[in-house]
Design a protein that fits this description.
- By secondary structure, the chain is of the alpha+beta class.
- The protein folds into four domains: 172 residues, Mannose-6-phosphate receptor binding domain (Cation-dependent Mannose-6-phosphate Receptor, Chain A, Distorted Sandwich), CATH 2.70.130.10; 297 residues, Glycosidases (TIM Barrel); 97 residues, Galactose-binding domain-like (Jelly Rolls), CATH 2.60.120; 77 residues, Hepatocyte Growth Factor (3-Layer(bba) Sandwich), CATH 3.50.4.10.
- The chain is built from twelve helices and 39 strands.
- Strands 2, 5, 6, 7, 8, 9, 10, 11, 12 and 13 form a ten-stranded mixed beta sheet that branches. An eight-stranded parallel β-barrel has the order 15-16-19-20-21-22-25-26. Strands 35-39-37-38-36 form a five-stranded antiparallel beta sheet, covered by helices on one side.
- A hairpin with a 6-residue loop joins strand 37 and strand 38.
- 48% of the residues are buried.
């Protein structure tokens, strides 16, 4: 009977703190447990396989200690102070592979109820995960340990453990635990995540100062900004830039730490009138009108916790230029400012509180004002204030670690947890200028297109919203190089990945209407095997982030393991793969998931042009001509770069049919062309 119950099981989330950590729920709703797996020898066991250094493992619900890892590990990199059940050990580092607090348990083989049990543990260092494959073996000694470990990529470590404790005879009926409530997004946070990309517009007093803000006690005169910037800013250009890289919302820094306002305010409190800002122009309205013309929504950043003009948070020993106010007057002014901002510019896409809202006595009136005027706006750093809160990822580099979860317990910044109790999307903010420079500084320079593409993969591609900085100079017109980089980034995104739930028109294969309530999605390439180098996955999130673990298979062979998918996950494969069919297979989930998109982008349209010169590319075209050199590369971009570096080369042909590599032919002249599937021809823009 138990063998029948085990057939076609689904993975269930578990934790070593639960009474029955090795319990499996069947698709028919019954549960069985393998209590003898909890009684296996604890270890630790030191084992080897293809990895050149040892693995040190215990059972999933024990922890390896530093002493047990060994003295050759000079840096102990546990994901937390309690250690982990499995480590890969190199000469200088010990990598925790997973934790028993993040475990999903399922039948080893859904089609064979006698095969055994698999427990997949996530939460290791750098997104690592490890699967304990308890293989049913009646002949194995009950006290035997694991036999080997297998390294299959950063999220694909496996510990192989034959044992009779994983056989059907060792299973017993078990009560099914009550399912925990799954955190779900609000309508506002779901719409926010669908936008994926926004802009943080930094044009304020710091722009005119050529700095990143005001030092404490030093208030520049208002004329510093008013006299050195145009009354009509080039906001049309700003919004064209935002739209060019796919931005859907623009959050304007309307009051930074200096306290200077970019809109005409009538705020006053008692005998004090706030007169530090513009009165001859309304830059917020200019931006709102410009961005509405290109379909970009407005958001507003207002720094609540700091105001150098009002000598806040000190309120003591003011210097010349600083106003003298009480705490009550400060709170009154903040509420008046926010009332103006949240009333005069329509519905906002995002409200930004940099550093949160830590002002004494302000939380309750702030909450009441938000609920009255802008209850549908998401609030960055709004955890504890709004159900539409968004959380900072914890870095301004633009590079978010994987996995990233939309759920967490508590309000701390970071990547979240798979078993979190609150739904909190993550925002990844970054600058286009080098060195984390938010306001324009002459000579600072800009990130390269290659770096911006890498950031896109680590922000949007890991499931966060990318908030890219716009920093106009005092004359308000963005430099050509900034505009070009924004445009090139947008061209790359649309060419390679499409937009929203619509794949690029050139995608090798894609779902066209998503997939509702499914644990596997299969794609086939038209015309036979094709080479590809990445996978694009988009979970449907209205019921919460549900996928906990998944595999991607090519022609039946696993090529990728992962944990989080979320709004978007872009998996860049370690090697090119050639196959006829690709399958996404969910191996653990909080409930049956749905998908907005599963796609295989065409590598031809995912080549990043070389620097700011680039190449003109013609897909499915083979140039004819005399080859002056042939080489093997791993991307079309490398073939382009090889031609650009060779003075005699005018054209190139890239043959993408070869698995794991590209044959690159460099030509000194073009002598005609022909249509040829899988070939990309082009010329560098020298």
């Amino acid at each position: 009977m138990l063998a029948l119950l085990l057939h076609s099981t689904v993975a269930t989330a578990a934790a070593c703190s639960s009474p029955q950590p090795f319990a499996i729920r069947t698709e028919k709703g019954a549960c069985v447990s393998y209590p003898k797996l909890s009684s296996l020898p604890r270890g630790p066991f030191r084992i080897r396989d293809a990895f050149p250094m040892p693995y040190v493992v215990t059972t999933p619900c024990e922890n390896v200690t530093r002493v047990q890892v060994g003295s050759n590990c000079t840096t102990y990199n546990a994901a937390d102070s309690a250690g982990a059940p499995a480590y890969a050990v190199s000469e200088k580092q010990c990598y925790a592979l997973g934790h028993g607090a993040h475990m999903a348990v399922a039948a080893l083989d859904a089609a064979n109820s006698s095969a055994g049990v698999v427990a997949k543990l996530s939460g290791g260092v750098g997104g690592r995960a490890v699967s304990y494959r308890f293989i049913c073996d009646e002949g194995a000694a009950p006290d035997a340990g694991p036999t080997k470990a297998v390294e299959g990529g950063i999220a694909g470590y496996e510990v192989i453990w034959p044992t009779p404790a994983a056989c059907p005879a060792a299973a017993v009926a078990a009560p099914c635990p009550a399912a925990a409530a799954i955190p779900k997004p609000t309508t506002a946070t779901l719409l926010y995540q669908e936008m994926e990309i926004g802009a943080l517009v930094c044009y304020n007093m710091a722009t005119a100062m050529g700095s990143q803000g005001c030092a404490a006690k030093k208030v520049p005169p208002a004329s510093t900004f008013i006299d050195n910037t145009p009354s009509k800013a080039d906001t049309d250009q700003w919004c064209r830039a935002i739209a060019s890289f796919g931005g859907k919302y623009a959050t304007y820094v309307v009051k930074h730490v200096c306290g200077f306002l970019v809109w005409p305010s009538n705020a006053s409190s008692g005998n004090f009138t706030y007169n530090y800002g513009v009165q001859d122009r309304d830059l917020i309205r200019q931006l709102a009108e410009s961005c509405a013309g290109v379909g970009v929504k407005l958001g507003l950043y207002y720094s609540v916790n700091n105001n150098v003009y009002l000598n806040y948070p000190s309120l003591k020993d003011p210097t010349p230029g600083q106003a003298v106010v009480t705490q009550a007057q400060y709170n009154d002014i903040v509420i008046q400012h926010l009332t103006e901002l949240w009333t005069n510019y329509g519905s906002l896409a995002e409200i930004w509180f940099d550093g949160g809202f830590n002002v004494p006595g302000l939380k309750e009136p702030l909450l009441a004002l938000y609920s009255k005027l802008q209850s549908n706006a998401v609030v960055f750093n709004g955890c504890g204030l709004s159900k539409n809160a968004v959380i900072w990822i914890g870095t301004e580099s633009g590079h978010s670690p994987y996995p990233l979860w939309n759920t967490q317990t508590g309000c701390a910044s970071g990547t979240g947890t798979a078993d979190g109790t609150t739904y909190l999307p993550k925002e990844v903010d970054l600058t286009l200028q080098n060195s984390d420079t938010w306001f324009y500084q002459e000579g600072r320079g800009y990130r390269s297109l290659n770096e911006m593409v890498s950031i896109y993969h680590d922000s949007v591609g890991h499931g966060g919203n990318m908030l890219l900085n716009i920093a106009p100079p005092p004359n308000s017109t963005l430099p050509d190089i900034a505009m070009k980089t924004y445009e090139q980034l947008g061209d790359f995104i649309s060419s390679c990945y499409g937009s929203g739930s619509l794949p690029s028109a050139s995608a090798l294969a894609a779902t066209h209407n998503g997939c509702r309530n499914c644990t596997s999605v299969a794609l086939s390439f038209a015309g036979g095997p094709r080479m590809f180098d990445r996978v694009l996955l988009k979970e449907e999130l209205s019921q919460g982030q549900l996928v906990l673990a998944f595999d991607v298979l090519a022609d039946g062979k696993v090529i990728l393991n992962g944990t989080s998918i979320g709004r978007t996950y872009i998996a860049l494969l370690q090697k090119n793969v050639t196959a006829s069919k690709v399958e996404l297979r969910v191996t653990a989930s909080r409930a049956t998931p749905s998908f907005r998109l599963v796609a295989i982008p065409d590598p031809t349209d995912c080549a990043v042009t070389a620097g700011h010169t680039g190449c003109d590319l013609l897909p499915n075209t083979k140039f004819k001509g005399i080859s002056i050199k042939s080489t093997t590369v791993t991307s079309v971009a490398q073939c382009c770069a090889a031609c650009a570096a060779l003075k005699a080369c005018a054209f190139f042909v890239a043959d993408t049919h070869i698995a794991h590599s590209i044959a690159c032919s460099l030509l000194d002249a073009q002598q005609g062309s022909e249509k040829a599937t899988g070939f990309i021809s082009g010329s560098p823009k020298k």
